[in-house]
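Methods — Computational structure assignment.
A single polypeptide chain was analysed. Its primary sequence is given first, followed by the predicted tertiary structure written as structure tokens.
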Amino acid sequence: MVARVMAVVAGLLAGGLTLGVGTVLASFLARSADPVLAVGQEFIARTPEWLKEWAIAQFGQADKAVLLGSLYATLVVLFAGIGLVALRRMGVGLVLVAVLGAAAVGAAVHRPDATALSWLPTTVGTLAGAAALILLVRAVRGVTPRQQGALSRRSVLFGAVAGAAVVTAGGGVGLNRSNSVAASRADIRLPAPASPALALPPGVDSAQGITPYVTSAKDFYRVDTALSVPQVDVASWSLRIHGMVQREVTVSFADLLGEDLHERWMTMTCVSNEVGGNLVGNARWLGVPLTTLLDRAGLDPAADMLLSTSVDGFTISTPVAEATDGRDAMIAIGMNGEPLTDVHGFPARMIVPGLYGFVSACKWITDIEVTRFEAKTAYWTDRGWAQQAPIKTATRIDVPASFAKVASGQTVPIAGVAWAQTRGISKIEICIDDGDWIEATLVPTVNDTTWVQWTYAWDGADPGNHTVRARATDGTGQVQTQNVVKPIPDGSSGWPSKFFTVT
């Protein structure tokens, strides 16, 4: 029994050393070469769409933390099992270690942003783990409860391997933190915009409990495929525009700072947002109009798609028509008066209002190829999502909260937000307990590319259970559809509802 327990520990320590060495080496080469991150990214790439949507629905923006936690838990089980196998048959245990290492190496070199040395961290880590497994399991074999002196000597070896695993893993984490963009971001001073954003109108945020009109960077939703947030060196970053253009254009971050910057309020929405969901936010963005750069390159009239690429190889396809039709499409470098955070695309990202993010909002952007839809495809279109994805008219009920209890004899506040970017919102109606549709009050907004807050005060509510539904009418007169549609491939639809009780 003692031998088996120690074999499990041996397997875990060998696995810890494998990951620790891989992490510390990846911190010197490329974060994407980290064995766990490489496998995690490959898992994301190969996950069926229904499972991705289930994960987002269940875990929201914590989906990546859940995935990483699950990967580590799986590795714990695997390496514990490898230790037990190696106790009886060392050769089989080493084969299993090699198989895991080969899978991680394959994932690392398969990454779009793989380098010539992406194989190295996992390979060296696997060799170190295999060597540790041999030493530890050989020390374990033949151990009995009576061999206390031998066990004590073996504990020195176990402690040494454990220390090496901790030091390498901790060193990798420390190096990754030291490579953070926080310091360089703090040194950036954004210039005053040549075209400032409009001031917020009176009445914004007037309803208690309503979603704030301005979403902070901390609260702004994040949905992407990056397990590890890219840390981009702003000094060496550049954006290249090429393809079906008259001349190739490359700009640095300093070049963007020297342009006439525009500042605009814009609401962004993720296509994964369910009816009534929170994957939507509104912020004051600062950047260079996308047409400024595209006009400088000179677009071929036959081009109909912009294929943008992130520093980690992720791709997004954006229709040229929407990117150049006069809306405030931009290469953004600022958010709410500050440089972009790393989570939201530092140093630069694309924003095209009125389109879901998967066809418009490339973060950590470094390349734009002007091309045609028939010639190129992007990450999500390769997985069956729509090429054209204008944001659908939608609304959300924020107040009352689901299953809230409201005291009788009081006015029941009903409030929320609605959006139909580039078209605007002209009317919000609510329906209480399948009664008539009642028009709510719209709070003044800045422009048609932002969401609108709305309120309604319900007087005379009877005690009991109640349900409220809402629907929006956009600026063209189109009423939000009642038809319930799931987010994929081009956005959800349906009327949101809330159930609450008047006590």
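Note: The two ends are 61 Å apart (CA to CA).
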